[in-house]
Automatic annotation (TrEMBL), chain A:
One of its GO terms (molecular function) is ABC-type phosphonate transporter activity. Belongs to the binding-protein-dependent transport system permease family. InterPro entries: MetI-like, MetI-like_sf, PhnE/PtxC. Residues 71-254 form the ABC transmembrane type-1 domain. Pfam families: BPD_transp_1 (PF00528). The lineage of its organism: Bacteria, Bacillati, Bacillota, Bacilli, Lactobacillales. This is ABC-type phosphate phosphonate transport system, permease component. GO terms for cellular component: plasma membrane. It comes from Pediococcus ethanolidurans.
From TrEMBL, chain B:
Residues 7-251 form the ABC transporter domain. The lineage of its organism: Bacteria, Bacillati, Bacillota, Bacilli, Lactobacillales. One of its GO terms (cellular component) is membrane. This is Phosphate phosphonate ABC transporter ATPase. It comes from the Bacteria. The keyword Cytoplasm does not apply. InterPro entries: AAA+_ATPase, ABC_transporter-like_ATP-bd, ABC_transporter-like_CS, ABC_transpr_PhnC, MetN_ABC_transporter-like, P-loop_NTPase. One of its GO terms (molecular function) is ABC-type phosphonate transporter activity. PANTHER family: AMINO ACID IMPORT ATP-BINDING PROTEIN, PHOSPHONATES IMPORT ATP-BINDING PROTEIN PHNC. Transmembrane segments: none annotated. Keywords: ATP-binding, Cell membrane, Membrane, Nucleotide-binding, Phosphonate transport, Translocase, Transport.
Length: 262, 260
């Protein structure tokens, strides 16, 4: 009656795990070959890298006062972009969540749009917006808003799909409509995730906007590019230190907030 | 004792999409103000029966009347209005654990509010006062501002009762409300339900697995087996033997039926 069953061959020797692992390793090796990732060259030219590091080890402190303004601009760009993207992402993520929208067709359309948005490379978006609204931070904000929208809506709907559905049922049974169900039974359960995903995306955007600056989309990136072009690695060091500080601060804030909220 | 029926089942059957039979030709009339206990084995269709009344489940054939009105074709606003008038208590309480007790209790009232007013949390003074009274009624007034997950299971179930009370319900459906509680808290939860019934003349329907509780609290006991109504007696006529018969496994009954 109560005998432990013997495992099948597949279960016993973890055949599935082994097969998947082998496939994965082969895939990595294969792609490295095809894309021409050359580890030998990487280590052979390592000297150049250390030379650059040495120059950067002498930060040009006088440059500090000059980068404060563009760093603030970068933060503003990232903040506005992330906020706008998040606000648009909220209704979309609700509509994409399996446990809220039972209509497969509607959900499919929404998810398709979201996938499409996430496929657009942010550099292409930046180039596009620079062409439309001209060089400057506005192009950066648009780019970051769309990028954040794509990323946050996915993180959000996945969070929504993990909630306890009991309260949803209770609200429905009490005569609540769909919006009331979301406001009373869903939002309280996912709010913490929302805050932490927002901060996470904000942090990514601060870093991303430095790259966007290369394309003329405003912020500290413009200065980063200039310093590198002029081989002024002392200035580059200051900029990197500045960005590092901002990222550390955001990380600190988001950790404290998360601890408070959980 | 018997007034006009508040709930009436006429030849109600329900077959789930996968072919499972939930209910089979149920005829049942429940008078206003009754405390009705539903018993039966696991899978007998007790939850299904209950959920057809507030249309959390749709039926396949037959008709159900609540307060004289057929409910099987209600939609949208009408359906929400029906649900608003029927409180529901769940085995797992179904509170929003991260919200305050106050907000949980008030959420029972959202059916009376427009979308935007409830979204902004603009509950009237009277309703906030009503929430306090509902909580005091179940002995949890001091927990108003606690988070729901700080409460014990029994306390959470009583908050759920307060939430149902906020709906000004004519009917309360309780689906195994005490299945995850200890004997002592069971007592107080059942008392709370009984008081809703006696003081406010609310019709209460409770699914129970405990025969002794069924006899103590019910006015009437009905038994289900394999989706069929196999027993229906006022409490005065219920005997221990009857109840034993209801709890007999379906297979044994089926066999004896075949032999007969
Ligand atoms: N959503 C569903 N889809 C398919 N079959 C279902 C569904 N819900 C319930 N059933 C089946 O319908 C029958 C009646 O189930 P129901 O939940 O009403 O029983 P119950 O008497 O409440 O049992 P329990 O005491 O275990 O809660 C069971 O055979 C069950 O497996
Ligand atoms: Mg059940």
């Amino acid at each position: 009656m109560n005998i432990v069953p013997t495992r099948t061959f597949t279960q016993k020797y973890h055949v599935k795990t082994v097969v998947w692992l082998t496939l994965f390793i082969l895939l990595v090796i294969g792609t490295a070959k095809m894309t021409g990732v050359d580890f030998i060259m990487f280590f052979a030219n390592f000297g150049q890298f250390t030379a650059l590091l040495q120059q950067m080890a002498k930060p040009d402190w006088q440059y500090t006062s000059l980068v404060v303004q563009p760093i603030l601009e970068t933060i503003q760009m990232a903040l506005i972009g992330t906020t706008v993207g998040t606000l648009v992402a909220i209704p979309f993520s609700v509509l994409a969540a399996r446990n809220i929208v039972k209509n497969k067709f509607l959900r499919g359309i929404i998810r398709f749009i979201l996938n499409l948005v996430r496929t657009l490379p942010d550099l292409m978006l930046a180039a596009l917006f620079v062409a439309i609204v001209g060089i400057g931070p506005v192009a950066g904000v648009f780019t970051l808003a769309i990028f954040s929208f794509g990323m946050i809506s996915k993180l959000f709907y996945e969070a929504i799909e993990t909630i306890d559905e009991g309260p949803l049922e209770a609200l429905q049974a009490a005569g609540a409509n769909k919006i009331q169900m979301v406001v009373f039974a869903v939002i309280p359960q996912v709010f913490n995730y929302f805050v932490s995903y927002f901060l996470y995306t904000f942090e990514i955007n601060v870093r991303a906007s430095t790259v966007l600056g290369y394309l003329g989309a405003g912020g500290i990136g413009v200065y980063l590019q200039r310093s590198l072009d002029q081989f002024a690695y002392g200035q580059t060091a200051i900029i990197i230190l500045g960005i590092l500080m901002v990222v550390l601060i955001i990380d600190g804030v988001s950790n404290t907030l998360r601890e408070r909220l959980l | 004792m018997t007034e006009k029926p508040i709930i009436e089942f006429q030849h109600v059957s329900k077959t789930y999409q996968n072919g499972t039979i939930g209910l089979k030709d149920i005829n049942l009339s429940i008078p206003q103000g009754q405390f009705l206990v539903v018993v039966g084995l696991s899978g007998a269709g007790k939850s299904t029966l209950m959920r057809t009344i507030n249309r959390m489940h749709d039926i396949s054939t037959g008709n159900i009347f609540v307060d004289g009105e057929s409910i099987v074709h209600l939609e949208g606003k009408e359906l929400r209005r029906l649900r608003r008038s029927i409180g529901m208590i769940f085995q797992n309480f179904n509170l929003v654990k991260r919200s305050s007790v106050q907000r949980n209790v008030l959420s029972g009232r959202v059916g009376y509010y427009s979308t935007w007013k409830s979204t902004l949390g603009l509950f009237s003074k009277e309703d906030k006062q009503k929430a306090i009274e509902a909580l005091q009624r179940v002995g949890l007034g001091e927990k108003l501002y606690s988070r729901a997950d700080e409460l014990s299971g029994g306390q959470q179930q009583r908050v759920a009762i307060a939430r149902a009370f906020m709906q000004d319900p004519k009917i309360v459906l309780a689906d195994e409300p005490i299945a995850s509680l200890d004997p002592l808290t069971t007592e107080s939860v059942m008392d709370d339900l009984k008081r809703l019934n006696e003081e406010f003349h609310i019709t209460v329907i409770v699914n129970l697995h405990s025969v002794s509780l069924a006899r103590r609290f019910g006015d009437r006991i009905i038994g289900l087996r394999g989706g069929e109504l196999v027993y229906d007696e006022p409490i005065s006529k219920v005997t221990e033997k009857d109840l034993e018969a209801i709890y007999q496994p379906v297979s044994i009954v089926k066999k004896s039926e075949v032999q007969a």
